[in-house]
Amino acid sequence: MDNSINLHPEETLSDEDLQLLAAGGSSEAEEQLIRRYGRIIRSLARPYFLTGGDSEDLIQEGMLGLLNAIRRYDAAEKASFRSFAVLCIRRRMFSALRKAADNTSVSLDDCLSLESSLFDEAPSRNDNQRGPEELIIDREEALKRYRNLLQLLSAYEQSVLRCFLRGMSYREIAEITHKPEKAVDNAVQRIRRKFQKLAPGDISSG
């Protein structure tokens, strides 16, 4: 059976349709899903990078999480493929961070709360085991820390951070900010250092 399909950037197949084709052996459908979820994976990896993780390693882990989702997704469970894929990607990244945490200064609580606060309302860990008040407090504190970070950044660094956390590549950020890619990289490194120096106790009430 020929599982090949002709996919183009303007392809309108749903994620669920692509997953079904990919699970059936279509490499083109799998590649389309990888392209479609590339920015999502980068955006999920980047809060961890700010707190001390390795961005490229985390992106690779996220890709493995996506491939796992492609192979395991079951539409009969009535969840969207996107929801399932994001869950698999997050779990894979968190598992990698947990293994490395003993030998690094990564704060898993900080990066998880930052990630869940900045991107969406979907739970990023065992939120079903935590009370709603605790979740709200976590999100509020993470958002306050994010606002405090913005106060330490120049206007250019703020622009870079917003683009960076949305999963944009250095090239895309360079085009938007009209700066060379090296300047973008330098700005990201400065932002990372400032974020790591921002102690949780420095959170203001504003």
Approximately how much helix is present in the residues?
55-70%
- Count of beta strands: 0
Q: Rounded to an integer, what's the Rg over CA atoms?
A: 18 Å
Number of helices: 9
Assembly level: single chain
Structural class: mainly alpha
What global shape is seen? Answer: globular
Distance between the termini: 61 Å
One letter per element, helices H and strands E, the order comes to HHHHHHHHH
User: What share of the residues does DSSP label as strand, in percent?
Assistant: under 5%
Average pLDDT over all residues: 77
Largest sheet: none
Uncertain runs: 117-130, 201-206
Task: Describe the model.
The longest helix has 24 residues, at 27-50. This protein has helices spanning 15-23, 27-50, 55-72, 81-100, 108-118, 132-152, 155-165, 170-177, 181-197. The N and C termini lie far apart (61 Å). It is built from nine helices and no strands. 67% of the residues lie in helices and 0% in strands. With 206 residues, it is an all-alpha fold. Mean pLDDT is 77; it is low at 117-130 and 201-206. Helix 3 crosses helix 4 (81-100). The radius of gyration is 18 Å and the shape is globular. It has a domain at 15-152.
